[in-house]
From TrEMBL:
Record's GO cellular component terms: ATP-binding cassette (ABC) transporter complex, substrate-binding subunit-containing
Gene Ontology process terms (BP): maltodextrin transmembrane transport; maltose transport
Transmembrane feature ranges: 414-432, 452-472, 515-536, 548-565, 596-619, 647-668, 704-727
Originating organism: Bdellovibrio bacteriovorus
Membrane topology reported for the UniProt record: Multi-pass membrane protein
Domain ABC transmembrane type-1: from-to ranges: 511-725
Family: Belongs to the bacterial solute-binding protein 1 family. Belongs to the binding-protein-dependent transport system permease family.
Keywords on record: Membrane, Signal, Sugar transport, Transmembrane, Transmembrane helix, Transport
Predominant cellular place of this UniProt entry's protein: membrane
UniProt-recorded Gene Ontology molecular function terms: carbohydrate transmembrane transporter activity; maltose binding
Keyword Phosphoprotein belongs to the record: no
Annotated compartments: Cell membrane
Protein name: Maltose/maltodextrin transport permease-like protein
Claim: Lipid biosynthesis is one of the keywords in the record: no
Amino acid sequence: MKFGKFAFLCLLFLCSFAEAAKPLRVQLWHQMIYGHRVVLSDALREFEKEHPGIVVQETYRETEELRSSYQAAAMGGSGPELVFGPSDQIGPFATMNIIRPLDEVLEPDYFKQFDPLAIPVYRDKHYMIGGAVGNHLMLIYNKKLISKPPQNSDELIAIGKEHTKDLNGDGKIDRYGLVFNYTEPFFFAPFIPAFGEAFMTDDAKPNLNTPALRKTFEFILQLRDKYKIIPKECDYETANALFKQGKAAMLINGDWSWGDYKDAGMDFGIARIPMISETKKWPSPLVGTAGYSLNVNMQTPEHEEAALKLLRYLTSERVQLMFMERVGVLPSNLSLRDNPVVKNNPLLEVSSEIMEVGTPMPVVPEIRGVWDSLRIQYQKLLANSLIPDQAAEGAQKLAEAQITDMNEILQQDASAFVIKAIIVILVLALAWMSRKSFVGFFQGFKGPQRFVYYMMLPAFVGIFAVIIYPFFYNIAISFSNFSLRTFQDWSIVGLQHYVSALSDPKFYSLFLKTIIWTVVNVFFHVTIGVFLAVIINQVMPAKGFWRTLFIIPWAVPQYITALTWRGMFNQEYGPINQFLQQFLHLSPVQWLSQPFTAFTACIITNVWLGFPFMMIVALGGLQSIPHSLYEAAYLDKANAWQRFRHITLPLLMPVMVPAALLGSIWTFNNLNIVWLVSNAGEPGDQTHILVSYVYKAAFNLYRYGYAAAVSVLIFLILAVWSLGSLVGQYRKETK
């Protein structure tokens, strides 16, 4: 007994020592492109060498994923100690109180060393420090094709037409004069003030229903449809690839892309986006920074101290010089501007001149509502569903409505007290009815089966943390005013979100579209899956090989598959349209720029992903059917269709019905494919289904309570559908 106690104390001492010796882990989430990530990783390894007790875990996330993941983590009081992102995330994060004012932890003189653009101020406080300044758009041109960049829009069109060519005489354009991600508002925003006035007022209100925006819309349409110097479809990745491959003479992109083009061995130059000939005004790119912010939630004071050390290090002259030398960004530290490496860099010199006509990036939360409304109406314009006047007017109205919804703080109504009373009654009733089970459960840890209970405890904790708690938490916030302005102090307000959702015609149109999405997908999943299973089981040799081959679409991560299919659907360069043109002599389909075809593209992608699961289930069911039944059918001279109809199909039903039910639930809630293939609902938010609509409401417009209410409605719909299907199947089987 004494030896056991001694051994226990020794073990406790060793564990304590190991815990004390364990290095402090600091997390950094960022959205840097590849070239910048390499420099960051090298800088962090140097930091770890200088601080042996600290380990930095860096995690890359795409910009929108970074925002939504950080918000979700903040809901639970966790997240990375440092987050790196664009300056326009300051307003929402600071309003939610999920990033800390740096003025509380850094001395005032510390900020004086930085360019003001690198330390944006929101509500008289600093929430971010950028390691570089700029993050702005410019004209980038291929020096092998263009010796002197255009100075005005007339020259831009003339040079663009000169370099837009069919090089091999096959009737298709092989090189464009200009490419850029013109489907996104950020990339055409510089033109708006060049045609007249800014798209936001000084007091952060949308200013969209203006002649300037109409003329900007008309200008982009002319570049595409009249002068034909830009592709008919062009997202960021397409534009970037065309320029690097020498298939575009000019590109509108940001300073963050220089490192990528240097690594590709390109000889390129930069210039201001050409002056608008009509107004004699320069386009005004948004200028800002991407920087580091401190999480308001810190595990321990030691984590906060380590995060501050890391923040100071990453914004130091030493690290900024590393980024400047290797990827060519303009350092934010003013003392480095006189460094010979900076002064002798021609790109940075021209970039500084471009910034002179720029506009500081707005950091207020309302900018999200403006971007979103612009994006929706503009993409409808590109799809020829609207004219410029209608798009500008619609963008203004939608922006005002979305900003109102974002900033709304709901107040309690009479239903709030009823809901609170019901919750209390349900909790007490559940506790009373489960009292014996709870007592028996906890007594089990002292009984003869305690080892089993301890082994099952992690599973219980996991189920509670991952399923039970989030489920009831979601129900709770569906009755709350949880939103941008009440992120930290929300309260139960009643049934207002449910009333709002059920009285909105958009909910029912999305519900109908979701039903179509689910029915069409599951139909083809099951049909193709059963067909392939029957062929493999009865006809094909090397069954193992074909099973492995056909399951590959299901095995590949959805993210990769969705983005691959999106590239395949490109109107001009996608292999699907190339096949239609070369072999079927059909006109190219505008897969991603028209609502119906974009939705069809999402369905095709999801069918490709879903049929392997049904095939595997069907194969298992086929192998359980007695072969003697088919032998008897042969003797009765039944043909293949009769054997399938009277033997295979009836005996597969008990297997395929649950699989189809499970598939319908998955498909109904499948966010990834719609979001990635349609690029978040393009064109103009017309490819959304209910679950993607919920995601956008929560993480793009910060309407968490409303999104939770719609998600509860989705759960109820699926619960009723599932129970109804299971009851119906049970009745059929028991007849």
